[in-house]
Amino acid sequence: MLDLQLAAMMKQVQAAGLPDLADLPPEPCRGLYRQILAAADMPPADVAVANLSTDGAHPVVLRVYTPRLRPGPHPVIVYYHGGGYVLGDLDGYDNVCRQLCSDSDAIVVSVDYRLAPEHPFPAAVDDAWQALRWVARHAAALGADTARLAVAGDSAGAVLATVMCLLARDADGPRVAFQALLYPPAAGGRAGDYPSHQQHAAGPTLTLRTMEYFSRHCFGPTGMAPDFRGAPLLAPRLGGLPPALLLVAGHDPLRDEALAYGRALLAAGTPTTVVEFPGLAHGFISMAGGIASARLAQRLFAQALRDGLAATDTRG
């Protein structure tokens, strides 16, 4: 059964006659997505905010959120936003990252990676990797402790986060202590035994049509990720990764592929906690201002990051 507050919200959306995201070209789609994110968001938390960028041929813009309540060095979370690799930006996820900073008592670095179709796969992966390495190199200047480094993300951003763990493992660094993932499209547009694709094809938030729209823009006409960087379920090895938290929504076409990824992590020996919110739908991390259970999920997400990073606290 759909969460009652979410059901009421979706009635309002239907009454407003908003189109499916898949019915719009990318640029107006991005504008609509910003409106959707703002509709049930939390008020902005009181944290310090600064805009920075990496160096290199394709500098990546970062937004750094720092807790005000105690001096550093703080743990640091590199956050990758959702939006199917096509939508999303620093402003749309500003309140989510402010709240995560406040709830986790960690520095949060939000990554403004390049979007498809202007910059198709693997541009987002390249930017995500550049950002992670930049944060690790500049941790001291940020007031962060690189020994307490985590990655996190929602939807497409969750794929980027877990792929960063795979790349870091194989490159022997940066060392990531924890990964926190929200409803990742872990199959990268590939078919599989995922009944939720059809069970929740019509939403209530993400639809199957929109999933396919995103995949075509990012991965090309086939709509399928060519390798594990877009579909971590294709990774030849999932062992040797940092502990993971995986949150999924019961009313989400991505539910079953996200759960399949959780099982694959566990089978590979990666410590993984999987939590399903049966009444919620895709995108709930941005609904905490209007849905009590989404706020609970948000708190759980932050607490898991606090706990995962506290386990690596080197300050004594």
Structural overview:
- With 316 residues, the protein is an alpha/beta fold.
- It has one domain: Rossmann fold.
- It is 38% helix and 19% strand.
- It contains ten helices and eight strands.
- Strands 1-2-4-3-5-6-7-8 form an eight-stranded mixed β-sheet, sandwiched between helices.
- Strand 5, helix 6 and strand 6 form a beta-alpha-beta unit.
- Helix 4 crosses helix 6.
- The longest helix is centred in the last third of the chain and has 19 residues.
- The termini are far apart.
Task: Please sum up the structure shown.
The protein is α/β, with parallel strands linked by helices and 316 residues long. It is 38% helix and 19% strand.
Task: Write the SSE topology.
Elements: H1 4-16, H2 26-39, E1 48-53, E2 61-66, E3 74-80, H3 94-104, E4 107-112, H4 123-137, H5 139-142, E5 144-154, H6 156-170, E6 178-182, H7 196-199, H8 208-219, E7 244-251, H9 255-267, E8 272-281, H10 292-310
Parallel strand pairs: 3-4, 3-5, 5-6, 6-7, 7-8
Antiparallel strand pairs: 1-2, 2-4
Major β-sheet annotation = 8 strands, mixed
Number of helices: 10
Can you tell me the CATH topology? Answer: Rossmann fold
Give the overall silhouette.
Answer: globular
- Examine the secondary-structure arrangement and name the CATH architecture: 3-Layer(aba) Sandwich
How many runs of DSSP E, i.e. beta strands? Answer: 8
Q: Please list the strands of the largest sheet in the order they lie side by side.
A: 1-2-4-3-5-6-7-8
Order of helices and strands: HHEEEHEHHEHEHHEHEH
How would you name the CATH homologous superfamily?
Alpha/Beta hydrolase fold, catalytic domain
Structural class: alpha/beta
Tell me the radius of gyration: 18 Å
Count of spatially separate domains: 1
